[in-house]
Amino acid sequence: MTEKAKTEHIVFFHPDLGIGGAERLIVDAAVGLQKRGHKVTIFTSHCDPQHCFDEARDGTLDVRVRGNTIIPSTILSRFAILCAILRQIHLILQISLTSELSALKPTVFFADQLSAGLPLLQALYPNVGTLFYCHFPDLLLAKGRQKWYKALYRLPFDAWEEWSMSFAASIAVNSAFTKSIVTAQWPALAAARTLSIIYPCVDVSDKPVENTDDNTLTWQDTNIILSINRFEAKKNIDLAIRAFAGLPKHARSSVRLVLAGGYDPRVTENVVYHQDLLLLAEGLGLKTATTKNLVTALRVPDDVEVLFLLSVPGGLKDALLRSARLLVYTPANEHFGIVPLEAMLVGTPVLAANTGGPLETVVDGVTGWLRDPEVVEDWTKVMDSVLHKMTSKELEKMGQKGRERVRAEFSEESMAERLEVLMGKMGPPPRSVRGAAVAVVIVYFSVVLGPVVSVLSLYSRR
Fold it and tell me: Which residue of 18, 41, 101, 344 has the fewest CB atoms within a 10 Å radius of its CB?
């Protein structure tokens, strides 16, 4: 790495630095680049110390929350995309008008998830190139589009997403699957920009196993089937419950399904989906319990078959992954999926959907299994095989293959190096793009954002 590369100051922009796959990637990318000698600062509109990754709160990373004082995250649990865009615009304006961003002397911008603010960023800092990391097109993630008024509401945001991404000097995607989707959705953008595949990573360093909440208790139950995902319907966690319920009662004896993952009480979907999963499990005759920390989890009666662990801390998550006999990863057409890598790294076999990102991470029959998420019976068969038919030696061999694959292909160092190379090759967008940024931003603010900000300001003060 050259001396110049060591003095780069990379400024990240991420909407909500909570707990999720996108947030894990941002944290890993920032830490990896920092280890390679770069200065890193992360700007976000929200970061709750009680609901974020350790590196975002323990001083490892310089995380600054800005642009969160005028616009709420939603209005009556609606208009999330509009509010997200306005919050990003507010953030960029705040750190620009106060000279906070200029004082950092940024050399590269790194944005992800939300590209709406890139024209403004480019207009204000025309000589700083932006790398945009596309986890997946937001327009394909929006719900309720079958309703005409929802589709009409989304039209300007969908158009703005593609157009604003063109202001990035470089665009990266998280998998070949996502690249194919972006290319099909935005062929003109894909033709104008090279879409570089940069896989998310996991930390492969040989760290000591973290202690959990009270530094004395540990998770010791090894007879569990584990699922780790945010409590969202698209994560298809109900598949794990249905497959587990398909095991004969004697086959479930002394075995527990643990459903852990991101849960934010501010997010209506998290709350509703958790309740739906509880009703599903109980309707299938499974005894359930819900806990929020290790202390209460260890006090759960032995006859509980399905345990919900909400927003588990990093130490407990690692302990669960190490102790599980099988990780089940249920989302269909997942853009990438970091949890399968985390499981394979510690030698835990993975059962995942045979669509999307897992096709690029899990090797069927070698590091785990890939099965059709529509065929519940096939998932039940794999669970039964792992619990009652495979020998310890067979499971250990599969686990070793998983560790080798992750260390070779998905390390933090490898991802940081690829990002560094990509950033080193890029410059600012063409002058024609920079000129368009200035003109469009002026019109956008005067005609659209001015009235909207005024209305939302009045709403937020109520």
Answer: 41
